[in-house]
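Changelog excerpt

This revision adds worked examples to the README so contributors can see how folded entries look when concatenated. The first example is reproduced verbatim below.
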Amino acid sequence: MATPPSRAGTKGVPRARREEQILAAATEEFGSRGYAAASLPAVAARVGVTKTLLHQYFGAKQDLYLACLTPVGDRLVAVIRAAVAEGAAAPSAAGPSAAASPAAAPPAAAGTPLLVLRAIFTALEGRREAWFLVYETSLPPDSEAARRAAEYRAAVNRLAADGTAGLLAAAGHEDPLDADALNHVWQGLVATLVRWWIKHPDQSPDAMARRCARLFAVAAALAPATAQGDVSGNLLGGAG
C-alpha cells in the first residue's frame, strides 16, 4: 500500500498528525526495503519534511524503527491471541454442515486457523508491509529494536505452538516432534499467505479469508479419509 508523497510543509501541521505521517511512511519504507536498506531521506521526502525533523521527532534510525515496530507487534500478538481465544470458546458452534463447507460458514465456525488468518489480514490492512517489521533480519543484533522484534516473534511462536499442539492432542497425537513439525508448517503457511496477499493489493481481508477457507476445504478433501476429529480436518478449516 503505497503512501503518496506529501508536499505539505511542517508549519501548520499538528505534531501528532505529522508523527502519524512519518510513522506510516517509515513503516512502508522499513517493511518494503528492510532495515539496512531503508533510507531516512526517502521517508522524509515522502512526508515532505527534512531528515533533521525525523531525528527531532524520533531520534536515530533504530529509534524510528522501534516506534514503527511496537504498535505493529502489539497489534499482531493481541489479535492472534484474541482469535485463538474465540476459536477455543466456540469449538462446535457451527455444527457438521459448516464444517463440511467452511467457505460458506461464519468465521467462528470455520475453525481457529481461519480466525487467526482473518485477524492477521484485518490487522495489517492499510499497512501490509508492516508484517515484515516483526521478521526483519538486518537489525543490529544488540539493539532494542532487535530485542523487541524477537519478543514479538517468540509470542507468536508460543501461540502457534500451543494451538497446533492442542489440535494434535485433541486428535490423540502426543508426539512432540509432530507438534514441532506442525508448528513450523503452520507458521510457514501463514507467512506465505501474507506474502501472496501483499503482492495482490486488490484482495481485501475478507476476500483473503474466504480464499483461505476454499483452499483449506480443497486440501482437506484431498487428505486421506480419517476418523472424525482428526487434526488435518481441524487445521485445514474444519470445526474446532
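The second example, added in the same revision:
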Amino acid sequence: MSSHGQKTDGLQPVYSTVAPVHTTRAMIDAQLEEIDREERVEKDNSKLKGVNSKITTVDMESIKEFDITSMERNSVILVVASRRSGKTHITQHILEQYHKKKPFDAVFLFSKTNSGFEKSIPQTYRFKTLDMLQNIVDTQIKVKKHNKKAKKKDMVTSNIAIVLDDYVGSGGLTAEMRKNPILNKLAVNGRHLDFGGRSNVMVFMLSQIYTGISPQIRLNADYVFTTKLSAKKERENIIQGFLSLESGRQGLANSYGVFDNIVNEKDFQFIVINTTAQNKTKFSDYTFKLVAPPKLEDIRLVGDSDDWKHNNLDIYF
C-alpha cells in the first residue's frame, strides 16, 4: 500500500487520503479492534463444523446479562439442570433480587426433600405434597374477586411466588408433575388470576428432567433457565423447542453453538431463554446469560418473627 492509501495487490486500504498521524493511528486502532472482534466471533463459532462458512456467524458478545426484574409477576419459569448444577442456588438468587425491587407478599415451597431455601422460606410456607396448592390458588381467586368489587383504598395485595423443587426425577412425583390439573391450569391460565397487579402468581418449576414436565406446561413457559446437561437428549429438546432461530441444518448448528458457548463460559452459568419475546431476528433478542454469586444474600422472603423464631425444619425422606 502506498502512502496515499491506494489499493495495492488487491488489499483494501485502511484509509484513502493523507491524514494527520493521530487520526491515522485512531483509524488503524479501530480497524484492528474490529478485526480482533471478528476473530473472537469466529472462535466462538468454531464448534459449528461441517456448515457453510458463508452463512452469518453468531456474535456471542451481543448476549447480555439477564435483567431478573424484567420478568412479569405472573411468569411461568422452568429451571432445568442436572443434579448439583445449581438449580436451587440460582432460583434463590432470582427470588432475592426480584424481591428487593418487587417484593413478594408470600413465597411457598413445595419440595419432596424440604432442602434448600433454609434461610429464605420458613417451615410454615413449606409443603411436601401438592395438596395445599389448591388452597393457595383459591385464595388468589378470592383476592381477585374482592378487588374487582372493592374501592382502590380497600383493595388487597397478594403477589406470590410458588416454587416446585425437583418434583420429577428419581424418587419424585413424576406422574403428579405431568398430570396435576392445577399445575397445568397455573401454566395456561395463571396470568388470569391477577386483577390490577395485585394477585399475581409467579411459578418456578425446578427439574433435573425437562421431559418430566408436561408438554402443556413446557409450551406455556415464559422463561427457561438451564445449564450444562448430562443427558444429550434433554439438551437437544430444549434447543430445538426454544432456542432455534432458523430452520435447517445451519440454524440448528448456530443454536447449539450459542447454547454451548454460554453454559461453558463460566462454572454454573445458565442460559436464559425468553420464550415469549416478539420480533426475534437474532439470538440476543431473546437469549441471555446469568450466573449467581457463590454466596447468596439469604434474604427472608416470607414469614413474620414468630415463623422464624419457631422455625424447625421438618425432615422428609
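Reviewer comment on example two: Strands lie at 76-80, 106-111, 126-127, 160-165, 201-207, 223-226, 270-274, 287-290. The chain has two domains: 1-44, 61-309.
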